[in-house]
């Protein structure tokens, strides 16, 4: 088998132990004589997987009783329009904090639904930073305030979250969910596509506070109401059963690693290796993010010239590093160091960055 270091931005690395477990259960899931993909979503075997995944996420993230965990489809991209469809009503404002391309995309969708405003933006600073809390512009008729917790493309991340009381705080946590402990109570709604820290693509996780489930949503099609999925324990229709099975295995793995605190500690260690290689390079590697806004999940940097970026990436590819290209919209280099990326991969990248620079 080819030995690679997977730094893909998403879909991305899965824990090897999870893949091995899935492989061992592929042909016969728990004595059923078939794979989990072939089971009815109404069978007790599947329902057990489904419920276990919900329970584990609640346990690992310390989710309070008044929040529901939902399994949806359509990716984080559908969430960009799904929550405005229910909450951005006539006379209210969808208020957005812009920290990168994904926040812009979320705003673009909301504009098609209702009135929007920008509470703060770091666009003028080329999305190298997260806006200061003191700069936020709120409105008394805010339907919600939306933020993107980790900016996958620019490589910035919120170090802490504001306590917002006048409206629900909605967060797209697609690229850092479960990478560190959070205070779920600060949020009305959290959503994330699974394909970075939670499992394969196909399932989108939403964590919704009860009061947001009791709004009148008669104008919203059934499948696009959080209520529909909350009332049926995300079994209103056929859920993406294999993705949820994998999610359950990934959550089990996170628990085996010592939970979210332990994962965060490892993520810090991993990211530090690469940030140190940048900081100790006398400016050869230039990080995109300002230091206090650096992401532990996506480390973005450039070499002194486009030609050197190309050489660096080409040689990296030969050595088995996968996915180090920056997003097509910004170029440069990006190492995505999600939960399942092993420390050894980061050590290897650190060594490669040092030897390439010396050469
Ligand atoms: N938000 C963020 C922060 C992302 O990184 C991504 C995907 N890279 C998306 C949203 C879009 O997610 P999806 O492909 O699941 O729609």
UniProtKB/TrEMBL annotation:
The entry's keywords: Amino-acid biosynthesis, Aminotransferase, Cytoplasm, Pyridoxal phosphate, Serine biosynthesis, Transferase
CDD domains attached to this UniProt entry: PSAT_like (cd00611)
MF terms (GO), sorted A to Z: O-phospho-L-serine:2-oxoglutarate aminotransferase activity
Residues modified as N6-(pyridoxal phosphate)lysine: 196
Catalytic activity entry: O-phospho-L-serine + 2-oxoglutarate = 3-phosphooxypyruvate + L-glutamate; 4-(phosphooxy)-L-threonine + 2-oxoglutarate = (R)-3-hydroxy-2-oxo-4-phosphooxybutanoate + L-glutamate
EC number assigned by the record: 2.6.1.52
HAMAP family, per the entry: SerC_aminotrans_5
Record protein name field: Phosphoserine aminotransferase
Gene that encodes the chain: serC
């Amino acid at each position: 088998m080819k030995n690679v270091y997977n730094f893909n931005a998403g879909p991305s690395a899965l824990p090897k132990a999870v893949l091995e477990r899935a492989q061992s259960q592929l042909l016969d899931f728990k004595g059923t004589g078939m794979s989990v993909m072939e089971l009815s979503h109404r069978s007790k075997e599947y329902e057990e997987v489904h419920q276990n995944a919900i329970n584990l996420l609640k346990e690992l993230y310390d989710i309070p009783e008044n929040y529901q965990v939902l399994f949806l489809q359509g990716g984080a991209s559908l969430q960009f329009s799904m929550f405005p469809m229910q909450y951005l009503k006539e006379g209210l404002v969808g208020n957005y904090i812009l920290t990168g391309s994904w926040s812009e995309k979320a705003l673009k969708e909301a504009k098609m639904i209702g009135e929007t405003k920008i509470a703060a933006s770091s666009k003028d600073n080329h999305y190298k930073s997260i806006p200061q809390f003191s700069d936020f512009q709120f409105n008394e008729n805010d339907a919600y305030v939306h933020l993107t917790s980790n900016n996958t493309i620019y490589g910035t991340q919120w170090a802490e979250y504001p306590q917002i009381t006048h409206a629900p705080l909605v967060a797209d946590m697609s690229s850092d969910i479960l990478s560190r402990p959070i205070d779920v109570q600060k949020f009305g709604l959290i959503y994330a596509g699974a394909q970075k820290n939670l499992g394969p693509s196909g399932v989108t996780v939403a964590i919704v506070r009860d009061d947001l489930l009791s709004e009148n949503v008669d104008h919203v099609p059934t499948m696009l109401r959080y209520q529909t999925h909350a009332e049926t324990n995300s079994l209103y229709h056929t859920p993406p059963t294999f993705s949820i099975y994998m999610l359950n295995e990934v959550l089990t793995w996170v628990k085996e690693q010592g939970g979210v605190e332990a994962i965060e500690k490892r993520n810090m260690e991993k990211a530090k290796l690469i940030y140190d290689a940048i900081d100790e390079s006398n400016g050869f590697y230039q990080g995109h993010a300002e230091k206090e806004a650096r992401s532990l999940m996506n480390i973005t940097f450039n070499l002194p010239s486009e030609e050197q970026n190309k050489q660096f990436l080409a040689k990296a590819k030969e050595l088995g590093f996968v996915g180090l290209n920056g997003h097509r919209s910004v170029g440069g280099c990006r190492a995505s160091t999600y939960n399942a990326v092993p420390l050894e991969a980061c050590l290897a990248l650190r060594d490669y960055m040092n030897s390439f620079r010396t050469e």
